[in-house]
């Protein structure tokens, strides 16, 4: 039943550098993946801190999902988001970390506290 | 005299992740920086293998220069190009290497031969 609501995701083989860069060139989308990266758990779409409307945010989540950066699934009525980090690291070693690090306003000496 | 012909370049402090990603999202511009990266010497604009007209190529060189990815200078009548690699690596550690590695059609086990 829930499978009907789960949107399509590209396989790892179909993830291209072009699509990944097109996704990451947008600052709102970089904010989404940075917040996901910094969160200890998967996040539902409504819980991100974003400077755009819900419908615009939905568009950005779709671009990220179709580029292969995030995976979406349902828990009840909430659409959850998780980073496809391991797959991205295999496809494009170092790229995700470099962008996320560069995207943070300050480079923290130590994370987690 | 030549100084009049040298186009403006942003200082390292003015190089932003946004501009760098906007530059690298274009496949022709990724090809330019990849060819520069793989060349043992600086290259003049006319010596790149690019699928676009000279005037379009000039546009792409300008975007790369204004984003801080390349430095241009003259030798005689030739406009030469060099990567600002050390500066980029300081500003955005790992980003340039990750994009260039991902951009190469095959991941070579060893470079240089």
Structure description:
The structure is a homodimer. The first copy, chain A, is α+β, with helices and mostly antiparallel strands and about 110 residues long. In chain A, about 45% of the residues lie in helices and about 10% in strands. Chain A has five helices and three strands. In chain A, strands 1-3-2 form a three-stranded antiparallel sheet. The longest helix of chain A is centred in the middle third of the chain and has 14 residues, at about 55-65. Chain A starts with 16 loop residues before the first helix and ends in a 10-residue tail after the last helix. The interface of A and B includes residues 94, 95 and 98 of A.
Features:
113 residues, alpha+beta, three-stranded antiparallel sheet, homodimer, 44% helix, 12% strand, disordered C terminus
Q: Helix- and strand-based class of chain A?
A: alpha+beta
Number of strands of chain A: 3
Task: State Rg of chain A.
Answer: 14 Å
Tell me, rounded to a whole number, the average pLDDT of chain A.
Answer: 89
The ordered H/E elements of chain A are: HHEHEEHH
Summarize the amount of helix of chain A as a percent range.
40-55%
The largest β sheet of chain A comes out as: 3 strands, antiparallel
How would you describe the oligomerization state of the chains in this entry? homodimer
Major sheet: arrangement of strands of chain A: 1-3-2
Beginning-to-end CA distance, first to last residue of chain A:
40 Å
* Total of DSSP H or I helical runs spanning 4+ residues of chain A: 5
């Amino acid at each position: 039943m829930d499978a009907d609501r789960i949107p399509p995701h590209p396989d790892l083989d179909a993830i291209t550098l072009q699509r990944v860069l097109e996704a990451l060139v947008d600052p709102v989308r970089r904010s989404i993946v940075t917040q996901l990266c910094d969160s200890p758990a998967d996040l539902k779409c409504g819980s991100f801190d974003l400077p755009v409307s819900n419908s615009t945010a939905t568009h950005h989540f779709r671009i990220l999902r179709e580029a292969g950066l995030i995976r979406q699934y349902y828990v009840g009525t909430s659409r959850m988001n998780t980073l496809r980090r391991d797959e991205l690291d295999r496809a494009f070693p170092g790229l995700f970390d470099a962008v996320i690090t560069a995207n943070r306003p300050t480079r923290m000496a130590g994370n987690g506290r």
